[in-house]
């Protein structure tokens, strides 16, 4: 009767090493896919938040801005970078936000405060959008939609307080095509949030899309391509 030969210790260790490599590759690929999904979700949620902020600014006649805050404690106890929209109150009396003049919108006492630190400054706020560690969304910070018109201004935490009636200043503060970029350290090409300066309507576009990279002039989006090549 032929004797069955067992595996040596070296063969067992070699097999375990090979299995470990395959497991590591599988886990790495899964983590990469999950990370990419989180980046895509955050990008789309920021776009949705901008659309919602514009809608509220028009319907409520109050300025609504997007804020990005670091080291915010979440319900699960972790601290992350988050973004959300804030509907700012107007007037000198925060208890009566419906009574205000153009020079008092938003309220002077709230122009340099976020509603996380001073909740009384806001009529309402959006849900926190968690920004993945591999993503930077700082460019959208302080994107503000003006009351009534929904016109956008960028880098204005005060939402043009005291300047709402000055059309030239409002136009100059409108975001340019390249100014709101979402960048990723994962190797993913950046995305651009393009906001129309008159209407405030926005669209999010990926810089690896056909519209940005094609050489076919009939399919190329020149505005997007130029925005993607900006630093």
TrEMBL record:
PROSITE patterns given for it? PROKAR_NTER_METHYL (PS00409)
Residue intervals passing through the bilayer: none
**Which InterPro entries has this protein been placed in?**
N_methyl_site, Pilin-like
What is the protein named?
Type 4 pilus biogenesis operon protein
Could you tell me which species this protein originates from? Answer: Corallococcus coralloides (strain ATCC 25202 / DSM 2259 / NBRC 100086 / M2)
